[in-house]
């Protein structure tokens, strides 16, 4: 049997799909910034000399990394609702995403911090730098620079994972796609188009992260050194 | 009306877990075979082949698994093939695993020093003989830890099969939650079951990784 | 007597940099040639061109009757006749010494295991390592690894052996054992092209010495050439090197 493709039916839904893509980007932006901040704190906590704190951070990271995002999303959204806290789906989704991506961030950033050469710490110490100063200049900043490629790869994966939040009816790209396909009955075409939009989003993010990297890490560019 | 949560529900979830494991194994096995093929294309002698494989991998890695899953599910549907959810999920996950595993393995193959390949060629081995007898055995050692690590990824991803109605662990939990209205408990248990499968794999991967580094220095 | 290795006006560039600027050289059967020269003078490149690890831009290379410059050359047939040993040994770390040596005879020449094992034992005996057959490369010293690499090449029974600074990565006390193996080979009538920094070896063992300079064969002579260089370049090279 022969199937006739009909992408024409989708044309009138173009603005909606575009809106969906913007929601996806919005969620990605919020979770990237919050996830980086929260994840970095967790990484610091994980390296803390306080055993309880370190264990707690470790347990959090392991829990998130060894369970599916979809389960985490349901746990947070339906769980909070059952406890009487009815969050808008967008808010619940972003909370779940930050909760999720922060754990991966923590693991990546921690690896970067662990790679700090001992000599640099000793040198900074003997220069009389304060602990926060050492942390920022000697440990954290170079660590972020070191792991920047791994981090951005993770955030691109997270952008793709936002599609999962369609399962609690967030109107991001995949959520919109589900509406469109049930209105038009052109399911296959819809998801082909949506796949292409995701590809474009991926490329945009890659480009943005690359440019951001150039802007942020000017030192490495000037010296041409790796860290 | 909300039902009480009972032992029968746990049994139902364990059934779901079994299907999660089956789907994971299926996806990993099919994906592994496909990944091997893609990896060979990625390291081909011919630039065009390498480039083509690269583009395909980039495309797959730039699309959410959920969208691949829908595309496969509906895509097969339009050819009049009424696909069982297990098959749709299996195929989608095979495509996804193939792309990621192929990249992981390519990295491992390319981490074997070029001089090893040169030495094999100088002994008159063909490209294929050099690959299978000299390069791959060495790459295998490097590839084991990240491959085991990726299995965790596969297990977690199978949760998405729930959206096409395949009753694995996540779908089972959803169904139970719909009748018991105890999301913390139900999804908590589901999460714990996933953890019970994934964490040992993660730990194993870490141990392998450490051994590799000890062995090399 | 016809030449086993023949280079005629060979030119080789990497990108815009011309590394070999017209190299000509003829090696007769059973001859041992030492190739000396400064770092960067193109010694390794010349050697690699001889067994087609590099392709040349112009000129002709003929090795054991194989037209190496011909793009349609069956490279594997060439490699059956030419053995090469590198500075960095390049043994296969996942295989034992015996497996390293047997690999090519079994896969390429389709020898039976027992036959290949005899061949291996013979090759190992020649390099004085008969008792190390079951060891893994990492369990051997650098000198031993290099001797295994030589045995691995010999087991393919090549017509010609190429050596590229095979002792340069070794501690001084280990170079002797490797040079002795090569000297035995030369005495046994193997045709050899040896890139080396070991002037003593060149003088004592080589039938002829080739001094390369800036991508050209600058001077050719026998062992006495090193004592009275004809060109200022070789004179300078000798005075720095010794
Ligand atoms: N693959 C390559 N790509 C680009 N340039 C190369 C390559 N191989 C060698 N060269 C260049 O060719 C020149 C000659 O190199 P070659 O290795 O033949 O010198 P050599 O005489 O063997 O020196 P050495 O004693 O240091 O081994 C050098 O300038 C080197 O930088
Ligand atoms: Mg050299």
Q: Could you characterize the architecture of this molecule?
A:
The complex is a heterotrimer of chains A (227), B (217) and C (242). Chain A is mainly alpha-helical and 227 residues long. Helices cover 78% and strands 0% of the residues of chain A. Chain A has nine helices and no strands. Chain A has helices at 14-46, 51-65, 69-82, 89-114, 118-126, 131-161, 173-184, 187-216, 218-223. In chain A, helix 1 (14-46) crosses helix 4 (89-114) and helix 4 crosses helix 6. The model of chain A has no long low-confidence stretch (mean pLDDT 91). By secondary structure, chain B is mainly α. Chain B has one domain (7-215): MetI-like fold (Orthogonal Bundle). Chain B is 82% helix and 0% strand. Chain B has eight helices and no strands. In chain B, helix 1 (7-42) packs antiparallel against helix 6. The longest helix of chain B has 36 residues, at 7-42. The model of chain B has no long low-confidence stretch (mean pLDDT 93). By secondary structure, chain C is α/β, with parallel strands linked by helices. Chain C has a domain at 3-91 and 159-238: Rossmann fold (3-Layer(aba) Sandwich). Chain C is built from eight helices and ten strands. Chain C has helices at residues 43-50, 75-81, 97-107, 113-126, 142-154, 172-187, 199-205, 232-241; strands at 3-14, 17-28, 32-37, 58-63, 66-67, 82-85, 160-164, 191-195, 208-213, 216-221. Chain C has a six-stranded mixed β-sheet, sandwiched between helices. A four-stranded antiparallel β-sheet of chain C has the order 2-1-4-5, with helices on one face. In chain C, strand 7, helix 6 and strand 8 (191-195) form a beta-alpha-beta unit. The two termini of chain C are 35 Å apart. The mean pLDDT of chain C is 92. Chains in contact: A-B, B-C. The B-C interface holds B 115-116, 118-126, 129, 133-134, 137-138, 141 and C 51, 53, 75-77, 79-80, 82-84, 86, 88, 90-94, 103-104, 107-108, 152-153, 156. The site of adenosine-5'-triphosphate has 10 residues of chain C, from helix 1.
């Amino acid at each position: 049997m022969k199937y006739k493709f009909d992408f024409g039916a989708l044309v009138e839904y173009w603005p909606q799909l575009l809106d969906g893509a913007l929601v996806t980007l919005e969620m990605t932006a919020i979770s990237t910034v919050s996830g980086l901040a929260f994840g970095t704190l967790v990484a610091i906590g994980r390296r803390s000399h306080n055993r309880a704190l370190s264990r707690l951070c470790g347990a959090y990271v392991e829990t998130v990394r060894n369970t599916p995002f979809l389960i985490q999303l349901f746990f947070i959204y339906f769980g909070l609702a059952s406890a009487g806290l009815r969050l808008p789906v967008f808010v619940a989704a972003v909370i779940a995403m930050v909760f999720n991506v922060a754990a991966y961030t923590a693991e990546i950033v921690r690896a970067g911090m662990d790679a700090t050469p001992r000599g640099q710490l000793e040198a900074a110490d003997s220069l009389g730098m304060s602990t926060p100063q050492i942390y920022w200049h000697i440990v954290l900043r170079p660590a972020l620079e070191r792991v920047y490629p791994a981090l951005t790869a993770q955030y691109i994966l997270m952008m793709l994972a936002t599609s999962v939040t369609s399962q609690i009816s967030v109107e991001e790209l995949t959520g919109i796609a589900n509406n469109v396909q049930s209105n038009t009955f052109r399911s296959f075409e819809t998801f082909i188009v949506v796949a292409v939009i995701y590809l474009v989003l991926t490329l945009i993010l890659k480009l943005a992260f690359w440019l951001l990297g150039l802007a942020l890490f000017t030192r490495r560019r000037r010296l041409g050194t790796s860290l | 009306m909300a039902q009480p949560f009972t032992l029968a529900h746990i049994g139902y979830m364990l059934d779901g877990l079994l299907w999660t494991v089956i789907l994971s194994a299926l996806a990993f096995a099919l994906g592994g075979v496909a990944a091997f093929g893609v990896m060979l294309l990625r390291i081909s002698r011919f630039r065009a082949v390498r480039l083509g494989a690269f583009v395909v991998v980039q495309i797959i890695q730039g699309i959410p698994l959920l969208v691949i899953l829908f595309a496969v599910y509906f895509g097969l549907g339009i050819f009049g093939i009424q696909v069982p959810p297990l098959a749709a999920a299996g195929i989608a996950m095979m495509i996804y695993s193939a792309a990621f595993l192929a990249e992981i393995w390519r990295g491992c193959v390319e981490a074997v020093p070029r001089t090893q390949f040169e030495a094999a060629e100088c002994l008159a081995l063909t490209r294929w003989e050099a690959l299978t007898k000299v390069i791959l055995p060495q790459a295998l050692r490097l590839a084991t830890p990240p491959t085991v690590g990726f299995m965790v990824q596969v297990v977690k991803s199978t949760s998405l099969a729930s959206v096409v109605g395949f009753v694995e662990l996540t779908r089972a939990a959803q169904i139970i939650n719909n009748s018991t209205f105890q999301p913390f408990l139900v999804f908590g248990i589901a999460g714990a079951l996933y953890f019970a499968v994934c964490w040992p794999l993660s730990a194993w991967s870490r141990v392998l990784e450490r051994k590799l580094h000890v062995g090399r220095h | 007597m016809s030449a086993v290795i023949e280079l005629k006006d060979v030119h080789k560039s990497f990108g815009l940099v011309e590394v070999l600027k017209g190299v000509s050289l003829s090696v007769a059967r059973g001859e041992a040639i030492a190739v000396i020269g400064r770092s960067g003078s193109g010694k390794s490149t010349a050697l690699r061109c001889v067994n087609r690890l590099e392709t040349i831009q112009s000129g002709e290379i003929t090795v054991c009757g194989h037209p190496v410059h011909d793009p349609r050359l069956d490279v594997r047939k060439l490699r059956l006749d030419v053995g090469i040993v590198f500075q960095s040994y390049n043994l296969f770390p996942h295989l034992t010494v015996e497996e390293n040596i047997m690999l090519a005879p079994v896969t390429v020449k389709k020898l039976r295991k027992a036959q290949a094992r005899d061949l291996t034992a013979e090759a190992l005996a020649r390099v004085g390592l008969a008792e190390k057959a079951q060891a893994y490369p990492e369990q051997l010293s650098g000198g031993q690894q290099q001797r295994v690499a030589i045995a691995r090449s010999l087991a393919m029974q090549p017509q010609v052996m190429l050596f590229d600074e095979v002792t340069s990565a070794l501690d001084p006390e280990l170079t002797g054992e490797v040079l002795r193996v090569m000297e035995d080979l030369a005495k046994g009538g193997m045709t050899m092209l040896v890139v080396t920094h070991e002037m003593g070896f060149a003088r004592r063992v080589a039938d002829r010495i080739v001094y390369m300079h800036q991508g050209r064969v600058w001077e050719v002579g026998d062992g006495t050439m090193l004592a009275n260089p004809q060109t200022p370049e070789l004179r300078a090279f000798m005075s720095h090197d010794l």
